Amino acid sequence: MRFAIISVPAAIALLALVVRDAHDGVEEVVVYGMTWLLLLSGVRVAVAHGSNAGDAANLSRTTHIPRLIWALLWMAGTLLAVVIGGKWLVLRS
């Protein structure tokens, strides 16, 4: 949570500064870097919380599907987002 509190406002401030003052090449590098940061931070959160996440407990009680399955689904989703997002980033560069 602390990571998001710091990284999101910092990313917004950096993006505003770069868009206003930087050249196109610098803009491109910053935007690609921020995109990778956001893609990979999703994986970090899914790994850090795992089946101990509060959402996993709530969903487990509601659906009777074990917490571990929810954690694995979140991990699969975040990894799929990295693969698809990474493919789009690499193909467009």
Describe the structure.
The structure is a single chain. The chain has 93 residues and is an all-alpha fold. The chain has one domain (2-92). Helix content is 88%, strand content 0%. The protein contains four helices and no strands. It has helices at 2-21, 24-49, 54-63, 67-92. Helix 1 (2-21) runs antiparallel to helix 2 (24-49) and helix 2 runs antiparallel to helix 4. The longest helix has 26 residues, at 24-49. The chain is elongated, with a radius of gyration of 17 Å. The two termini are 31 Å apart. The mean pLDDT is 87.
Short description:
With 93 residues, this protein is mainly α. The protein has helices spanning 2-21, 24-49, 54-63, 67-92. It has one domain.
C-alpha-based Rg, rounded: 17 Å
How much is the average pLDDT? 87
| Portion in beta strands | under 5%
Shape annotation: elongated
Described by strand count, sense and barrel closure, the largest sheet is: none
Domain module tally:
1
Q: Return the string of H and E elements.
A: HHHH
Structural class: mainly alpha
The number of helical segments is 4
- The termini sit apart by 31 Å
**Secondary structure: helix percent:** over 70%
Extract low-pLDDT stretches.
Answer: none
Number of strands: 0
